[in-house]
Amino acid sequence: MAQLGTLHVAAIDSLRARARTRAALLDVPGVIVGVGTSMTPDSPPASVRRIITGHDPDGRAVVVADELLEARDLSGEGIGLAELWATFEMPVDASDATLTRQREGSVPTTVANGSGCAFHIGVIAPGGASPMHRTDSLDYGICLSGELEMELDSGEVTTIRAGEVVIQRGTYHRWHNSGDKPCTFAWIILDALPQGAAKR
User: Fold this and answer.
1) Which domains does the chain have, with CATH numbers?
2) In the prediction, which pLDDT does 70 show?
3) Residue 133 or 29, more confident
4) What would the mean pLDDT of 103-117 be, rounded to a whole number?
5) Any long-range contacts for 68-74 (C-beta under 8 Å, 24+ apart)?
6) Whole-number Å distance between alpha carbons of 120 and 187
7) What is the mean predicted confidence (pLDDT) over 6-28?
8) If residue 101 lies in a helix (H) or strand (E), which one and from where to where?
9) Which sign does the torsion angle of CA 112, 105, 109, 189 carry?
10) pLDDT on residue 46
């Protein structure tokens, strides 16, 4: 059993080495290949580790990229945002032909082609806030650490804490971190039909 364990670890190390080589060869702008992050409990991360799977020529599952993705600084808002992934059709095309485009993510919050999805992780510094806004999308928001206030245009304010989720259904809202620690939040944003009640 010990020998099998050693072989298993060696195989994983070999796959990881090949994955890092493949990621380097892809040479996607804005991506730093490596392992680990600069994240600490009390400060926003400068990057997010992203691991991508795929298939080798024999059809076996492998890690094709293990990389650090730099967060984009939203100047003046106290928010760092990493655009982790985007898809542009449904059902999603998960073939290698779409890998480069999908891994570039979506700089706009939504893909906005009617059938897209975008995945972001944001870090909101203490005192950081977004403007009041809405998008034609259904957003799954997951608070990973800290806490964040969601203010609606009705004036209602709700606090979302670590481990809690919010389903944002095309409504006007703003985010605000009124605490003393950074908040890390994940958003999965699905294109949606415009909401008639939200039009002004």
Assistant:
1) 1-70 (no CATH), 72-200 (2.60.120.10)
2) 84
3) 133
4) 78
5) 68/31, 68/32, 68/33, 68/34, 68/36, 68/37, 69/30, 69/31, 69/32, 70/30, 70/31, 70/32, 70/46, 71/44, 71/45, 71/46, 71/47, 71/121, 71/122, 71/123, 72/107
6) 5
7) 39
8) helix 99-103
9) positive
10) 64
57-62 own/partner pairs: CB under 8 Å, 24+ apart: 62/15, 62/18, 62/19
Q: Which residues pair with 67 in a beta bridge?
A: 33, 50
CB 91 within 8 A of CB 137: no
- What lies within 8 Å, CB to CB, of 51 at 6+ separation is 63, 65, 66
Instruction: Determine the residue type at 70.
Output: E
- Token look-up 């059809």 returns 59
Measured distance CA(121)–CA(48) in Å, rounded = 8
Angle 97-46-65 (CA atoms, 0-180°, nearest 5)? Answer: 25
Sheet with 173-176, edge to edge strand ranges: 157-161, 147-152, 173-176
**pLDDT tens string 32-43:** 222 233 333 344
CA distance 79 to 81: 6
Predicted pLDDT at 18: 41
